[in-house]
Structures are given as C-alpha cells and as structure tokens.
Amino acid sequence: MNTDHVHPPQLWEVVAERIRAAILSGDLQAGSKLVERELAERFGTSRGPVREAIRELAREGLVVELPRRGTIVSTLTARDLIEVYAVREALEIGASKAVIARASAAELEGLEQHLVAMEEAWQAKTDYLVAAAHDLAFHRDAVALTGNGRLAAMYDQVLKTTMLLLRTAAAANPTLRAGMETWVHRDILAALVAREPDRAREAIEAHYRHAEDRLFAGFGAPNRP
To answer: How far apart are CA 44 and CA 172, in angstroms?
Structure first.
C-alpha cells in the first residue's frame, strides 16, 4: 500500500515563516535592516537557518540584499506594482481556462464565501487589510481549483508580495478603504460559474485595471502607465 509521509518543516522554513509574518503584519516595516546575529538570537537558533530563510524571502521579493548595506525589508514602488499585477493577471487568465474546464459547480460556489466575507468587512469598515486578506483568499482559492500544484505555488508566492504592496499603498492612501467596487470580483465569479472563458478573461482584465487605478495613488503615481 502506498503511503504519503508528512515531513515536519525544516528549521529555516520555520524561521522564514516567522520573519515573513512579521513583514506582512507590519511589525518589520519597509527599510528595516535584518541582522543575522540578532535574528538568530531572537529565534534561538544558529545563523545558518536564518541565512537560508533570508535567501528564501529574497526570492519572494520581501527582502532585498544590498551591497554594503546588508539585508533590508523591501520598499516597494509603482514599478513593483506594475510587475506583480502583470504576473498575477497573466496567471489568473491562464488559470481561468483550467478552472472552467475542471472545477465542479460546488467548488466554484465555494468561492462565494470569500466575497461575502470581504464585502462584510468593507461594510463594517474594518481595517483595509482585513478585507484585503479575504480578497486574496478568493484569488488564491480560484487558482487552486486548476488542480495544478506548481501553478498554485507560484501564484501563492506572488500573493505574498501583493500583501506587502497593499500595506504600502494603504499607509499612503487612506481612501483605499472606501474605493472598492464589489462588481470587480463578482464578475469574475459569475463568468467562471457560467463556464465562459472569454467573459472570464475580460472580467479579470477589468479587475486589474480597477485595482491598479486605485493602488497607484498610494505609490505617488496618478494612474497606470
């Protein structure tokens, strides 16, 4: 009989998750310097796992290693917004075709819960990033319905950078809390449920144009180049 063994995470993975959570929560802010010795003392480990964790976070775009300055938490710009959202848009358009082809009606209906939670968060005027977490969960679960593990992992990685982008934009532009339109996500879900690939592509493209127009104000850029 085949068995699937579950392996515990390696120490560097645990350290990476702790640092990642601190960055995404804002405890480690943009521009903060990461010192291996201090982090090793903080987490009660040697510097080796910390060094490997930092390499992983650099691959994710959450930190950057600069000559003579060491490693710092990334300060994201309008250019990062353009690149990250272009990657997400392309991945979602490709994923939508597979989702339409293979996802069950029940799986598609399950995406509704994220939209309801997001809309309730907006109506309750909770913290912008609380609503954003439900927003990203909708996109993550939609891509996961492709059944393509590599695609889902790639997309999940870019979502980590997205959350840092949203934190940066929200800090600079308080109007983000009041600017969301529910149709941008509802149209995507409706197209997937209707099994209409062209309509899904158009809805995804409209979503990203709307998102970019809102977010650019938080990066000192009035609109999308």
So the answer is: 35
Please tell me the distance from the alpha carbon of residue 203 to that of residue 139, in angstroms, as a whole number: 13
Distance from CA of residue 54 to its chain's centroid? Answer: 19
Q: What's the rounded Cα separation, in Å, for the pair 97 and 196?
A: 9
- Whether residue 97 is found in the same domain as residue 148: yes
- Under the banding of pLDDT at 50, 70 and 90, the label for residue 211 is confident
CA 93 to CA 221: how far, in whole Å? 26
- Average pLDDT (124-135) is 86
Contact 23, 72 (CB under 8 A): no
Q: Domain containing 115 — which CATH number?
A: 1.20.120.530
* Residue 25 sits in the same domain as residue 117: no
Phi, psi of 115 (to 5 degrees): -70, -40
Q: What is the pLDDT of residues 38-48, one digit of tens each?
A: 999 999 999 99
pTM: 0.81
Q: Are residues 45 and 134 in the same domain?
A: no
* Kind plus residue range of the DSSP H or E element containing 34: strand 33-34
Non-local CB neighbours of 195 within 8 Å, separated by 6+ positions: 100
Distance CA 161, CA 159 (A): 5
8 Å CB contact between 170 and 218: yes
Task: Point out which residues pair with 72 in neighbouring strands.
Answer: 33, 64
Give me the pLDDT at residue 180, please. 67
